[in-house]
Amino acid sequence: MDITISYNQQLSNSKTEEKEFMFNVCIDDTMNINKIARNEGLVYILGNAKLNHLLQDEIDRASLLRVKNELKNITGNYAVIILKSETLFIITDAAGSIPLYYGIYKNRIALSTNPDSVAEKIGTHKHDNISIADFIVNETICHPYTIYKNIYAVDPGSISTISDLKVESESYYKPIEENSKKSLEEWASKLRNLVQDSIYESIANKKNIRVLFSGGEDARVVTSLIPYDYSCKLTTILDFKNREYTLAQKAARSLSRPLEWVKRPAGFYRSHFEERINLIGSGRDIRHTHLFGDTAKPYQDSDLLLGGYAADTLFKTAWMKNTGYRLNGIGPERIYPYDPDDISGVHHPNDLPWLDKDLAHAVWERRWRFHLRLKEIRPSTAGNWHTLWPMGTHRTTYPHYLSALRVGPKLVEPFLDNRVYQLAAAMPDTFRIDRKVFREAFRKSLGAAAFVPGSNNRVPALGGTVGSLARLAIVAKRKLIDKVAAKKGIQESFGKDTKGFDFTFSDFFNSQSLNDINEVIRGETVSENRNAIDMNQISGKHKVRLLQTLFVINR
Length: 555
Fold this sequence. Notes:
With 555 residues, the protein is α+β, with helices and mostly antiparallel strands.
């Protein structure tokens, strides 16, 4: 699912200064794109939401602003592009779940789902050295920047207009921090109903449904909400039939659904760098493109693909910095006092000895400016929400979703649903602790599957002290089994290469390319007599992201 729209603004008559506009629309894979013709233009709806009723024949900025409150109530996720005469209108959902990028250079404008396509259409490939360093350090690029100068991401929850080489944007939604007095049961009921609505709306008239399945509990929840008169196949991707496979198999049996294992090829995350970057766009870590090539093929014959992506992030404590256990993992998960300026997912300059200090501080300053913007709407939880807004540009694992979007079938991730995301933003953190709201919302629908231990060493049905004791017992048992059986290989969903892998740059590029990237990353931030990156100190995942950046710069 990719779309790129571009045009050149030219003067057709130098005396009257009349302007000519010629739109060029390029679409690759229409499965997740819905095209609608209107009297005065074309509408492209990206994603799985239904917005036809809001987009009338007479479309202008005023008419779009009138429906901004209704946009908050749309089921599914979406981005909308409207072509009308010489104007582009853009609407993004609450989470910014389908990222769009725009660039204006000289008399050219481009808008695309891929920032590299924008750079190509407007004819500029000037790289932003701070963004490059940001990506290598933090795995994402601070919103709204991209790896290119003068190319930016569209704001989430906004209605934007591009006309006459100018951009005007107005926000209709921000994840404002709320002080709600609702009970746990009320939040759980709302969560269950919204997720169920998202699934029910997506499965209508679908005959070949697949679920991205694992040993975890999130995909179990999605599966448990699919009525049994709908046929669906659960599919898991693994290096081999390890513990994760055994857990997935037990969960599938408890849900009375068939499970298919797809073998991940050896060296999967070390191959096809350029193709993966082209698939998801630069500035994203390809180690999260789990559906690619051979692993994507089994899904291509489906007419709907469902997953449980983002549940951990939005409704549990993944990436929250103020949670923990009282004594070395003993006891229920707890919430602790929190400094909202402790930013989740962003490395401090003092922790980066391999990166030039001036460049490291430039990256930090850019992230800090965004943090202050976020703190205006979430004064108490801004640091924890840095990786959650916008989802489309700040989530480190988002390449998984983007690659799945491009597999071919209609893709629905219920926890990325427009209304579900807003619910997460409004819900107090206390209900995320110990998976309280998630367990309350879905324990009943899971049935027997709620008592099958997950890959996170938890029993979904159990919380509090009992759940903690069960978790400790499961951890001890698995360690003992691994020791006695001398199990080899990664026992979780993803291969060991997702954590980084060893390689030599000379296996991919010559020494001149390494000098070139140092020059690009140095930019105007680092003195000419200093290297931006110490190649002898950088290692692991940072080194892999540097390698990915080399592929982009050496195109």
